[in-house]
Structure formats: C-alpha cells, structure tokens
Amino acid sequence: MTLDNDKQNRLRVEAVGRILKDLLKTIKVVTLYPSDNPLPNSLRRSFAERLVDLIEDYGCLSFKIGPEEIRWDGELVYQDAGKEECLAGLFFEAGINRLGFDEAFDFDVVHRFLDLVRDFQSSRNGADLVALLWERQLPGLTYATVEDVSLADYRGDYLATPAASRAGSADDSGKIPGYQKLFLDDDVVELDDSESDGEFTDEPGETPASGTGMSPIGHEVDSGEVPMSSKDRSSTDSRQRGVSDQLDVVSNSLFGDVLGVDAPDSSSLAAAEAAFGFGVESSSPSRPAPDTTLILNSEHKLSAEQEETVQSLVRQDADFDPWESTVELCKEMLYQEDTLPLFSETVDICEKVHHDLIGLGQVREAGRLLTFLVEMESRVGPERPRWTERLRMAQQQVIAGDAVERLAAALNDHEEIGGDVVRRYLSAFGPQALLKISELGRHLTHQDHRVALSDHLAGLGQNNLALIARGVTDRDPQVVIQTISVLSSIGTDESLGLLKRCVDHADDSVREALVRSLVDTPHEDAINLLRQLVYDDVADIRLLAINSIVLRRGPLAFEAMGDLVRDEQFIKLDYAEQQAMLVAYSVLGSDEAVGLLRTFVVRVNLFGDRQAAQLRSAAFEALAQNQGQRAESLLLKLTRAWRPSIKRQAHDAVDRRRQIRYGDENDE
Amino acid sequence: MSNVPAAETDIKQRLIAGEAEQRFVSSFFAMYKIARLVDANNATFIKHLTTVWDRFTKLLADHDDLTLKVLEGRLFVDDQLVKFTADEASIFRTILDDWSQLGIGGCTLRNDVERTALSDFFVFVAQLRIDNDNREQIATQISEMKFPGIDWLSVEEVSSGVDEAPERIRQRYRKIARRCFGQALTTVQEVVVAATEDKQINAAKTRRVVHSLIDHVVRDESSLLELTAIRDFDDYTFAHSTNVCIYSLVIGVRLGFDRARLSQLGFSALFHDIGKVKLPKDLITKPDAFDEDDWVQMQRHPLLGAKTILKNLPLDIHSARAARGAFEHHINADFTGYPMLRHERRIPTLFSKIISIADTFDALSSGRVYLKKQIMPDKVLKKMRGQMRVKFDPFLLNLFTDVVGIYPPGTLVLLTTEELALVLANTTTDTARPYVKIVGNQSGLFEAPIWADLSTEAFSDRGIVRQVDPTRYGLSAEDFILAEDDV
To answer: Please, are residues B375 and B418 in contact by the beta-carbon 8 Å criterion?
Structure first.
C-alpha cells in the first residue's frame, strides 16, 4: 500500500515537473515567434489543455519559487538548467516567492498568462512582471512577493518622534495638559461659515495664463465674496442656530456653572430637549449636534446624470496618449525656461525623451519632438546664438552613439510603422546627419523602411554626394546596396559615375541590386551600365539586365540591345539568353528590328552548325513575339520558303504569333 | 503586494472573504432567488444547485463548517467580510432584509450536510412569503423546520457569538493599513533621495507600493484615510505625497477606474510634488509663511517635478502620466494658477484635476505644506467648495467631499455626550454620523475605547458637536490613531 502511495506520489511529482518544463518551452516559443505564427499557437493550445487538466486532477497547484528551483508540495519539481533555461529565475528575480494556479485558471486565462509573460520578456523598457500580474489580475493565478514578507514584518514605526515624547502626551502625573480645556471650550464657532481667513490659500498663483505669470498675486481668493448658494446659506443659518442652541444647552447642563457660560436669553427648549432626549447612557451632560443635513448626504449621492458624468470623464481619459502628451509637455517645458543653463537642462531631457520614444517604437512622436527642436531653433532667433547652438547640438545628439542601431531595432520590431512616418522622422535631420543616417541601411529589414530611407538620402544626397559616395566602398554589401538605391534615385552624372564602380562588385547581391535600381534611373547612362551587366558572370543577373533594358524602353534601349546582339560576345551566350536578347531587341524595335532578325533567320547553315541553328531558332521566336506588320509579312513569306527547316520554323512561328496575339485555340 | 490573501497560511487571518468564498456566497443567494422562481425538478434549479454544491464542497477543504452571518448589514463567511458588487448587493439586500425581519442572523452549513438537504432547504425558503401578518408564523415555521447539516442562527446568536467582529476586522484592516502607509512613506523617501541625487528612480518598487495601497483602498479605504490625519513627521513631504496618493486613489476608485488606471493615478499622485526636492531645503522647511520671493521659487516646483520625472524614470505610461500630473497640479480649470502656459493652453488632464484637489486638501488641512497654519478639514472642504471652487472641477470636488465626509477619518470630534472620539470611517447612510472610537470624556482618557457606529440605532443618542483641533489642547491625534487597542 505504501509502495503504491510512493509510486503515485512520484508520478504526481513527475507530472507537475513536466508541466513546468512545458511552461518554459511554451514561453520561449511564444516569445520568439510572432503571434500569427502557427507554431506558438499550437504549442500554447496544447500546453493550456494539459495545465487545465492537471489542475482539474490535482486541484490548486501551489509552487514555492527559489532562486534556481521550484518546489511543489515540498518536492523539488523543477531546477533551472542554466541562464537559458530559467523558469525559476524568471519569477524569483521579479520577487515572486510563491505562485499558484487554481481551478479558475482556465484555458483562456492560460493564454492571457502567456501573453503577459511574452509582453514582459519583449519589453525593452524595464517592465515589472509583478506589476503586470497585478494590473491584469488573472483569475485563478495567485502569487506572493518579497514585499509581502517585508510588509508583514513592517512595524509601522514611521513617526518622527516616539508618541511619548510628543507634545500633548501625559505628564508625570499621567495628565495631559490642556485636555480638560477641550470640554470647556466653545470653539464650535469653527462650524460657522461666515468667518473669513485672510491667509486662506494653498498657493499664490491665481495668475491668469495671459498675465505675466511669475509674480505671485495670491490671497485674493480669500475675499469671502464668493456668493453662497441658498443651500449654503441655509446650512450656515442652521449651524449658526446650532451654536446658540449649544450655548443654551451648555448653560442648562449640569456642568453649566463649571463651564462658566452665561446663558443667552433666547430659550432653546427644543434644542435642550433634543440634547437630553437622546437618553445618553452615561447620563453625562450633552451638547446638541449641529444640523449638518443640508450639507451632507443627498448632495453627494451620485444621480444618474452624475453617473453619466463619471462615465464621460473616464471615457475621455481613456483617450490619453502618453507619448503625445509627453512630447507636448516637452514643448511647453522648453518655453518655460528663461536662462541658458536651465534651458539646456530641458533640452537634455528632450534628448532623453526622444531616446525613450525611439526605444518604445514611437517614431512618429519622436519625429514630432525632433521637428519641434528644429523649428524652435528658428524661433529662438539669432539674438540668442548659444540657445540655437544648444538646439542644433541636440539634433546631432539624438542620432549620435548607438542611436542608429536603436532606431533600426525599433523599426525592425515594428513593421507596422509606415514609410511615411519614417520619411517624416528622417526629414527632421539636416545634411550633417546624412552619413550617420546612411548607416541605417546596414540594419533595416523591412522594405517600406528601406525605401523611405533611400528617399530621404536621395533628397539630401544631391548636394552631398561625397557623403553618400562613401557607401559605395563600404565593406557591408547592405550598405552598398542602400547606396546604390540612393545614387540611382539621384541620377546625376556624378552619381552614375559612382554606380559604375559597383558593376564589378564582388558580391552578386550588390550587382543584382544595381541592375534592379537602374531600371528607373532617369539618367541615360544607366543603360550603358546595364549593357555591361548583360555580360555578367551570373546568369540570373544577365537575364535581369536584359529585362531591365526592355523595361526602360525607348530608342536608347533598342539601340543598346542592337549593339549587344551584334557584339561578338553574343554568340557565346547560351540559347536562353540569346533568345531573351533577341526577343527584347524585337519587342523594343518592332518593325525596325526585323531587318537584323531576318539575317539570323536566312543565314545559310550548310554544315548544321549548332550555334547557328540555335540563333535561327531564337530569331524565329523573336519574330513571333514582334507585334509589327513587317514581322508578320516576313514570317508569312518564309512559310513559303523552299528550305524545309525554315518553312517549318516559319509555320511554327506564325502559329506561336497567333497564339500570343489571340490566345490558345482551346481557350474560350 | 500579493494577490494571495494571508489566508493561505492561516485562513482565520483573512480580512475579506477570498475569491472562492465570494463565489460560493454569490451562488448561494442566486440559488435562493432561483428557488423562488422554479421548482426543484427544473433544469435551472438543478444546474444552480450543482454550482452551489460544488463550490461548497470545495470550500470544505479549508473550512470545517461554513457559517454565513449578517452583522450590522454586512455579510460574513466565517468572520470574513463578503464584498458585493453593486448588482449583487441589490439582489442580496432583499434576502438579508427578509432574514432581518424574521430574526435570522445567518446559517451554518455543516460538513456533513447532504445535497438533498441543501435542495430541501432552498425549496423551503422559497415558499416563505413574508408580510406583516405572517411574520411570527413564518419565524415559528423556520424554528421548527430541521434540515440535516444546516442550522439557522438567530440575530442574538450571531451577535453574542462573534461580538464586535466588525471591530476586530477593522483592527486588522488598520494594522495592514499602517504597514502599507509606512511602506509607502519609506518608498517616497527613497524616491526623494534618488531624485535629489539625480539617480534613476526605482519605478518598479514604487508601482508595487502603489498597488499595495490600491489593494487596501479597495478593501477598506477608511483605515488608510485615517492615517492621513497624522501630521507629526520630521519631514512632512513624504507623508504629504502618500496622503495625496491615498486621496487620489479613493477618488479613482469612486470613478470606477480599472486597476491599470488606478496604478497610474496612484503613481502620479505619489510623484506630484517631486519637484520640491530641487528647491532649497530651507524653503521647504521654512517655519514661517512664505514671502514673495519664496513663492516665486515655490512656483517652479511643478516644472521641476515634470523634469525630474522625465529625467530619472524610464518613459512609460506611468511616468508620462506622472510628469503631466506634476506639471499641471497647480493649473486651474480657467488656466490661472502656475506655471503659466507659454506654448499652448492644454486643459489639465483628469489625473491632474484629481491630484489638485487631493493636494490642496492635504496641504491646507496639515498646515505643513504651504501655509504654516493648520485648518480643520471640515473648514478646508468648505473653503474648497466655496471660495476656491473656481480652482477645482466641481464634480470631482463633490466626489471628494463625499469620500472624506464632513468628518474625515482620523479627526478628533467632541460628541454631544461630552466625549472625545476619533473618527474611523464614514458610514454610508449619513456622513454626519461616522463610525468612531470614543477615547475619553471629561474625566480623562478611557482605558479601553468604545467603538461606536453613530449611524446605528444603538448609538443614536450621540451626535457630533464639532471637530477638535488636537494641537490646541495639547493632544496628539497620532496617539489615538496609532493606539494598539484591544477589541
């Protein structure tokens, strides 16, 4: 029986240990992969099912968390294998000592818990796991932190001085000086609202925003002239009545003579009755309570309308945008300072805020702050050169150090940030930051962001080509590629001259990028670079270059293609490339291309030369794809040729031509 | 901070019923209602009975028996207070009223009760329809009807069996409140030291402290509000920040803020005066009233506060809110106040408006922040609602007045019976008649205080004459607030 129990217990410990290992694995995968990836989704589903089943079988699972181990029911159920495998550490370092899951921790809550851990782990801004757990309040999840231990031990002895030594404590005889006076005093007048306290204000600043603002003009609020509502008046009246009532009662009380209060002549029997009629058990003398009904209770109960006000306030507050708010606050703070050191300190803070905003992926707001710093430079004006200098420094500072890497990381983490946001952000930087910003190309992964960067560099690069040119010789192919994109966008003689250096770049991806970027380059020389790339070592690049020439269209493209097919290297190309080039030549030239193609077609090949045969075949294909009338005529004429091979190929070409133009016969 | 009630080690130490207990009570009373609508064979009846039964049996792991008691309108499960939502309260109130009319103080479900007995119990109570004529008859019926494993408790039994249970619970609340308050003070002190030395502020720790305060405000705001009346600190700045945090949180709770927003509000309130650490120490501790130059310096503290927060805390929604709150808490709704806005007139945020009210109230009633003269809280409220009303959002001010009441917790009052009492909590029925601890009379201070809910019939003979300024009579409110009273 005992053996059975031991075995059962061991099985339970193993099962709990397994679920913790699964938890760690799931957390790792969930953190690593994006939420739309099927892998983490299936893993978290199966984990949730297993955990919920386990809770159902074993009841509440309560764990004791150590620095590197987790215990359940006193048994070691998990031990961290190292820094990479630290589940205990994850919770322990957050200050969690105990963690429990009960039956309310259902399937949905498991998902919410995993989301929470993912958010915590992916946070770049020092999030606190315990704070997140507290704020999200997951049902069925219990935890205890180190604070609970310290709180339990806290004695609460936070007063400045011990009670015994405080003023008013009992003297040697155990009596408190002045205590008796409390019962003798008539300072119920405190409840009278009519008195005015000249000093009553917490602040001097009742300064209107349009005023000078700096000189305190307070105290006028205490004029006592604020009109009272009828309610206020009645409450005051009633309380004033209460004072006289009280005096009546006191004078009639058993202690009246002791108190030495002269009885006012107005009789207040009702008040006296009220005071004595309470039936005070101690039969001690009584004073009347002031009538507070008018200033209490119903006045402060929330009506349906007020409830609506609450809802409206809460709704409005939900629109609070912390990043926008902080940027606006920074702007206001910049306007608040009147001396250079304090202004400079505020600019320091703006730099820090900018840094934090980038870290949070709030590129739009970081851009707004940066733009404001730029605009402020002109507002400050030339009469304060050191102020403008400080602002200019800030603009450099925000892109200094590892700022480029941070910006890139933020953009890479937030694909949803649009290219327009990136463009606007970068537009706040002047040419002086061009070199630094061009380094972004080294890190950016999303196409939208890369295009935005190229646009920015191209815009500023025209007048700063030397800075951009450095990228051409960079060792990082990504930087060269980004530079190519910029230079081809600029499209000047100088930029094309710089691009020429990339034609022979050792990295295939660079040459490929060069071909792609040259398609849209307006400069005519781009076609010459493409011509060179048609004879690249890599077949894909060659084909891409041919297509790029075709895509550029126009007489220059036709001319370039003509030169290429007439070039002595042309014959050395393989069939596919020859065909591609001839087709390109044919499409670009239309009727004008037919003459040259005809020579390839009719050239006699007595000895059955393979290259010549291939060339003829490619030429026929080029004619088939030529939409001009001359190609049509030539092909029809060749269908009647005496040489059977030409006749057959011409027929095939005509058929193919029909097929291209009118579609397959079988097509509807 | 924890979401684990101390109950995990000792269930009796719990002050508020745990989630499982709350769920059980909820299903118990829902069943009570359902039994009145459908018969015992109905699927809904069976389904709900299963829920009640399941929840009950699960609770038996922690409880020997389960006793529901009604004491002074509050419901307890084994001495643990059950908190209802507003919706639940309206349903349960009618049932508890019925119990009250029949002299039922509660019931005990023993661990040997069977499901069928529980079903019979609900069927029986469902057919009871109380009116003026049959009250006694039904009471007799109840006393005669026996259900194995279930015992009715009369009002007398409940009262005698757990005499002064609410006081005992209140005492526990107050002890926890003191710990939370002390922890908050220590944290504010650490924040101030870090800010003074321009070091990074431990935001995570501060947030956890705020969370503790929120947990306690939600549990029992009075015991924290009571501590805000303590003035005897060497450096009142720490206490002031803590007090403003507590007041703000109480308003936030009234506004129905969710946890995240309460956390942000408490955090902001705790930091609202952080700019003062950048002002000369002499100015802050100056015993006399400020002159014009002092005010000019003092007016910079909102700006300095915003700067300090943005500089020494990582930017997140908490610090963003806090910076705005620190900057705006002296800007009035009509843009008077300070600092004067020079760039754009932006309306202060809801948080800033809340903090502004809490700050002014504590500053004026303490006499330790701006004015060097303490003003009684009732008078401060009156002034805030009258002479200073342009400064505050009227709706929020109303709400705040409702929270602190006319006699805020922690104030000393003179009773109509010539007794001195400490206000402990506002009552929901009448803020003029709070829950108090009577500490003495003309003969002197009592050895053991009398706990009195002035809003109840039992203490209807006592009323409040006025607030008592303790300093005027050589008293110290702290001594009464922090006294370790045995109940």
So the answer is: no
CB contact under 8 A, A147 and B474: no
Inter-chain CB proximity A290 and B466 less than 8 Å? yes
Give the C-alpha distances (Å, rounded to integers) separating B91 from A228, B33, B34, B69, B118: 41, 8, 12, 17, 20
For residue B384, give every residue at least 6 positions away whose Cβ sits within 8 Å of its Cβ, in sequence order, or none: B357, B360, B361, B364, B391, B392, B397
What are A98's strand-pairing partners? Answer: A64, A144
> CB-based contact (8 Å) between B299 and chain A?
yes
Query: How far is it, in rounded angstroms, from Cα A255 to Cα A45?
Result: 79
When CB atoms are compared, the residue of A166, A201, A353 closest to B476 is A166
Three-state SS string over A87-135 comes to HHHHHHCCCEEEEEECCCCCHHHHHHHHHHHHHHHHCCCCCCHHHHHHH
Q: Token pair for residue A33?
A: 């992969």
Q: In whole angstroms, give the CA distance from residue A647 to residue A644.
A: 5
| CB neighbour class for B480 (10 Å; exposed up to 12, middle 13-18, buried from 19) | buried
Here the tokens at position A252 are 């009639």
Q: What are phi and psi of A16, to 5 degrees?
A: -70, -40
Assess B28–A contact: CB distance below 8 Å, yes or no.
Answer: no
3-state class percentages of chain A: helix first, strand second, coil last, to nearest 5: 65, 5, 30
| Residue owning tokens 């909820």 | B26
Residue B147: DSSP 8-state: B
CA distance B257 to chain A (A): 7
Q: Single out the residue of B485, B433, B483, B486 nearest to residue B461, CA to CA.
A: B433
Residue given tokens 């419901």 in the structure block: B75
- Determine phi and psi for B415, rounding to 5 degrees: -95, 160
Q: Give the C-alpha separation, A554 to A548, whole Å.
A: 12
Residue A198 has a CB neighbour count (10 Å cut-off) of 9
Which of these, A523, A569, A520, A522, lies nearest to A542 by C-alpha position? A569
First to last CA, chain A: 81
Of the candidates A126, A175, A278, the beta carbon closest to that of B416 is on A278
Q: Cβ contacts (< 8 Å) between B351 and chain A: which residues? A: 317
b/e sequence A585-604, b meaning 16+ C-beta within 10 Å:
bbbbbeebbbebbbebbeee
How big is chain A by its Cα radius of gyration, in Å? 43
B contact residues 413-442, partner A, Cβ 8 Å cutoff: 414-420, 430-432, 440-442
Sequential pLDDT tens for chain B (487 residues)? 444 433 232 323 334 566 778 788 888 888 888 888 888 888 888 888 888 888 888 888 777 788 888 876 677 887 777 766 656 666 677 777 778 777 888 888 988 888 888 998 888 888 877 777 777 788 787 877 888 888 888 877 776 654 445 666 677 778 888 888 888 888 888 888 898 888 888 888 899 899 989 988 887 788 888 888 887 776 788 889 999 999 999 999 888 888 899 999 999 999 999 999 999 888 887 777 778 888 888 899 999 999 999 999 999 999 999 999 999 999 988 888 999 999 888 889 999 999 999 999 998 888 766 666 778 888 888 888 887 777 888 889 888 887 787 788 888 899 999 899 988 887 766 778 888 889 888 888 888 888 888 887 788 888 898 888 887 777 777 778 877 664 4
Q: What residues have CB less than 8 Å from B403, skipping those under 6 apart?
A: B221, B225, B247, B250, B251, B254, B426
Alpha helices in A381-446 (DSSP H): 385-397, 403-413, 419-427, 434-438
Mutate to test the interface with B, among A63, A113, A124, A134 (most CBs of B within 10 A): A134
Partners of A75 in beta bridges? A72
* Cα pseudo-dihedral A528, A530, A535, A537, rounded to 10: 140
Rg for chain B (alpha carbons), in Å? 26
